[in-house]
Amino acid sequence: MARFYMAVGIAGAGKSTVYRNHYSFAEYVSSDAIREEVYGDVNDQSHNEEVFNLMSKRTREFLKNGADVFYDATNISSKRRMGFLRELSKIPNVQKICVLVVPPFEVVKQQNANRERKVPEYALERMYRNFNMPHES
User: Fold this and answer.
1) Is the Cβ–Cβ distance between 95 and 2 less than 8 Å?
2) How far apart are CA 128 and CA 124, in angstroms?
3) pLDDT at site 42
4) In which residue ranges of the chain is pLDDT below 50?
5) What distance in Å separates the CA atoms of residue 54 and residue 135, rounded to the nearest whole number?
6) How far does the chain reach from its first CA to its final CA, in angstroms?
7) What's the rounded Cα separation, in Å, for the pair 134 and 82?
8) What pairs with residue 2 in β-bridges?
9) Which pLDDT does position 61 carry in this prediction?
10) Which has the closest alpha carbon to 13: 80, 79, 76, 98?
């Protein structure tokens, strides 16, 4: 059975670090990595639809081949998370696991200040306000 690990947390929360420290056995599908690979700039937010379509395609291919996948994006919207999980339900034998990364907001701001790619504080605050806590349905 393949396992799908969906990271959930605002930018700077530490999702990529959690992957490196605990889930590096899984295939890594990251919105930031795809932005860098395809558009040459991890900060390019102008092609989000294409980025997430490619993430979805790669994730489905890995899972269909029996590989575990760590899906690294903020995934803060319950509606978007559920839509993608419904899409994955069409693939048999996939266990879906939420990897919730939610440190206190002050810690996120501090971690963001120490990152190479800093997210503007207003954007962090907007993500924090719009965060939908995952729940089992």
Assistant:
1) yes
2) 6
3) 78
4) none
5) 26
6) 21
7) 10
8) 94
9) 98
10) 76
